[in-house]
Amino acid sequence: MIRRAQGIGLGVSLALLAAACTKNIDEGTQIKEIAATEEKPAPAMPVAPTQQVRPDAQRALENYEKLLDLPQDPTARAETMRRLADLQLELDEASGGTNLAQSEARLRRSVELYNTVLTEHPDAPTNDRVLYQLARAYQSLGELAKGEEALLRLTRDYPASLYVDDAYFRRAELLFRLEQFDEAAADYQKVLAQKEASPFFESAQYKYGWAEYRQSNYVAALGVFLTILNRELPAGEQTDLKVAIDGVRAGKKDMAQDALRVVGLALTQLGGSEAATQYFAKHGEPPYSALIYAGLGTTLLEKKRYTDSAKAYEAYVAAHPQHALVPQFLGKAIAAQELGGFIEPVVAAKERYVAHLDPGAAYWQGRAPNAEVMVSLRSHLEDLARYYQARGQKPRDEGTAPAKDDFEEATRWYQRLLALFPQDPKAAELRFLMAESMFDAGDTVGAAREYSRVVAEHPNYEKAPDAAFAALLAYQRNTEAVPPAQRDAALRQSVEAGLQLAEKYPQHPQALAALTRAAEDLYRLHEYDRAVAVAQRTLAVQPPAPDDLRRTAWQVTADAHFSQKRYAPAEAAYAELLPLVPADAANRGELTERQASSIYKQGEAARDASDFGTAAEAFLRVGRVVPGASIRATADYDAATMLIAKQDWAQAAVVLEAFRTAYATSALLPEVDKKLAVVYEKDNRPHEAAAAYARIAARPGEAQDIRREAAWQAATLFDKSKDEPATTQAYEFYIKNFVQPVDRALDARMRLAEIYQNNGNRSAYLRIQQDFITADAFAGSERSDKSKT
Predict the structure, then answer these.
(1) Is residue 3's pLDDT more than 80?
(2) What pLDDT, on a 0 to 100 scale, did the predictor assign at position 747?
(3) Is the peptide bond before 741 cis (omega within 30 degrees of 0)?
(4) Fewer beta carbons within 10 Å, N or C terminal of the chain?
């Protein structure tokens, strides 16, 4: 590449040259590295470095200027100008452009001299170097188009020049800066055609890839950068970016790292993970594909294409389902979706993570997951469970899936979470939430069991009391849903849940209500003794339970005692109950009837034991305690019967008389009169007895023989009591209604005849005498000596 200068041929020139810098100008600095592009700066190009300028360089410059003023042959003059221009460039580079005005003046002077050489000596064999240096000066001035034009002339006019290779590369760089990427790519390719023989090959290859990328030729760019990576990255599978880059040879690390980045950019432009999968399916997947997919994911994330970023990570997992990077990549996919802020994609990503990395999944092949995966797995399981539970609680649009599906899904995630992490610090809360999901899904029994487990396994959990109450509600709902054949078993579960709440958490607002409901359910189950015992716990609390609960507890107590034929305690319980029952309550009448019945049953028991006094008192108490009871009449009647059995005639009479007054239309009235008649008679009260018999005799519904006997008793008792009018009326009634037996009828007439004769009632007496004759005439077979007489 470097040529020696032609001799000047003049002594003075040689003297001046001897005084100049001894540096070989032909080895001056080549075109510097093109300024950084918007992507990443190209690596430093292999140009010859400028040597330090000696202190007498300025003197040499002045000498060259003087030399130009001296007569020289054209060839020497051209060489002097070239060397002067080179020295100006060298001085500018050495100064670092600290003085902008001085720098521009030097560069302009170099451009002037180079152009003069080219103009005055267009066919000079060294013009290829002049063009090269001219381009260098233009580039330093920032006049890139002129620099590119100079390099174009060099490559066109001097195709065999030692500078052509460098010129193509430098022109490509300038074209790249001018954003003429298609032309830049063409020149880069000319450098690449020389392959490794060109010192610019690797740099040109790198920038060629960028030129294709900037033209949107992403597939071509992808191929270039993958080729670079194939060369630069260490052999074998690479999954760690730092390790891979550390393994790149010195000076190429930045290029390799940037190549990975551009691969991600190109794949992003081509569509993301799908493009990567298709490209690798066609061209083969490199051993560092994990780095590519990771870079692609990062690039897409930077562009806020969150779902596409997640897909990049998941695409690698799909291609390498058993790879050690699966947990990391699935985790990155979740993180990308979370940054996107869309809930459903995050949920789907978490589901994929759990499905792939659950300890029972094929990924582990019997191995135990590491701690890091288990931590993530636990978090995702909880998130999934809570998500579906929350979604199930939201209002549903018509036509959408039922909430039940979401609650069942939530339950499934909670179950797996608790199965994998039974000792989790949040186990109590998680089980409580799972029970709620099961309840909302309609699995009341399952929910109740889980609520109960919260109580049993986590008694100190802040919501354990609520869990106990929720278990009760679930079992209660189940009692309403099961078939009749299963209802008793369901009720027993409800009872135990209620008792659990009351016993473990007596301060819970619903503890007393649960206790009372348990007593009711025990009564329904015919477990009367236990029902009473539980009800008494409600009644025993201090301060007293609310009236509605006490009312229920007393009713359970009363009804349970009644069902067990324990009528005395039943009566006492009803007595406590009824003051708590509103007067207009629908069941008040039924309760009063039960109270009356419990009293009456005590009377029956005493009667059966022949304790007539106690029986009578019990029967009478029905009326005193429950005056309006439907069985009061019966109770009063039975009380009288018991008093009669006790031979308490006076008290029996009182009861029977009261009965007649209170129940004038009672069907028992005939029997009452019969009993009254006997009682009066036994109590030596013939007149009252006679009146009772008279009523019996006058009652058409009575049997004929009963009426006849009653009529006779009435007449004889009135007669005994000396009530002549009543006696007369009674005998008259008898002979009128009962002609048989003839003898008794004759006796009645005889007594009437006697009464009428004694009181001087002649006509009545004669009528009776005539009746004797008529009665005898019709006596038939009953005629007797008495009737004839």
Answers:
(1) no
(2) 86
(3) yes
(4) C
